[in-house]
Amino acid sequence: MLSKRIIPCLDVKDGRTVKGVNFVDLRDAGDPVELAWNYSRQGADELVFLDITATVERRKTMVELVKSVARQINIPFTIGGGINEIADADALLNAGADKISINSAAVRNPTLIDELAKAFGVQFVVIAVDTRRIDDKNIVHLNGGRLPTERQTLEWIKEAESRGAGEILLTSMDHDGTKNGFDNGLLKTVNDAVHIPVIASGGAGAVQHFVDVFEKTNVDAALAASVFHYGEILIPDLKAILKSNNIEVRI
Predict the structure, then answer these.
(1) SS3 state at 231
(2) Is 74 exposed, middle or buried (0-12, 13-18, 19+ CB in 10 A)?
(3) Signal sequence span per UniProt (predicted)?
């Protein structure tokens, strides 16, 4: 049985890690390279870095960040934000990132998934999906959650898988930053419908939430930010409790 993964997420803005609630009210959470080193030592399985206000001008900044992180840690990490073409992904992977994550660009141009999977391999391509309930439907949102689309979440995720997505990072905007637990109903629906790993994101506030998401949805990984950044949950403690609940993790 594959071990479940614990993944700290670092939202990066202007070279700093930030965190908000429901994608707004951002506050500083520290230096991303220092945090990455600390999480690597604590036993995180992977890391995700998202440039939440990515622009073309800042691409060089993110390449430098990737190089700095790659020098400091020995666990896989994914980088996302502002990746619109093969050249963007190539620069980040060459700088030391293990995987790249795309969101808005994939929805606007789904063939980009095919192109990335063909160029780098399925295992390098993570599709991030920000979803919010509107009129009892789960709707895909773009631009850091600011722009609702016509796409329903499950339908889009299935299409992304068919085009070559190697993994889905699914963030419930309704749960994000609330610390009330993951959106287990949606996560189970998605995880049962696809054959690639699903990373749960949005809502972690207590160790029990991680136990619940793995037991109730069987997702492959759980991602969180503020509970790790501000020391509310320590990864070694979390993994010990998961193991005591017969959830396979890498200690």
Answers:
(1) coil
(2) exposed
(3) none
Q: What does the block give as tokens for 143?
A: 């631009």
Listed in sequence order, the residues at least 6 apart from 135 whose beta carbon sits closer than 8 Å to its beta carbon are none
- % of the chain with per-residue pLDDT over 90: 77
Cβ neighbours, 10 Å, residue 33: 18
CA angle 66, 118, 170 (to 5 degrees): 60
Q: Residues 6 or more apart from 17 whose CB is under 8 A from it?
A: 10, 11, 28, 29, 30, 31, 32, 35, 229
Question: What is the CATH classification number for the domain harbouring 142?
Answer: 3.20.20.70
Report the C-alpha gap between 153 and 170 in whole angstroms: 9
User: Can you read off the two tokens belonging to residue 23?
Assistant: 């994608």
Q: Work out the angle between the directed axes of helices 111-120 and 86-95 (0-180°, nearest 10).
A: 40
pLDDT tens across 116-136, in order? 999 999 999 999 999 999 999
Q: What is the DSSP letter of 108?
A: H
Provide the annotated active-site residues. 11, 130
Q: Name the residue range of residue 127's domain.
A: 5-244
Q: How many domains does the chain have?
A: 1
The C-alpha atoms of residue 224 and residue 210 are separated, in whole angstroms, by 10
Q: Are 58 and 83 in contact (CB under 8 A)?
A: no
Q: Where does the pLDDT of residue 27 fall: very low under 50, low under 70, confident under 90, or very high at 90 and above? A: confident
Residue 250 lies in a domain: no
Q: Which amino acid appears at position 167 of this protein?
A: E
Give me the chain's average pLDDT, please.
92
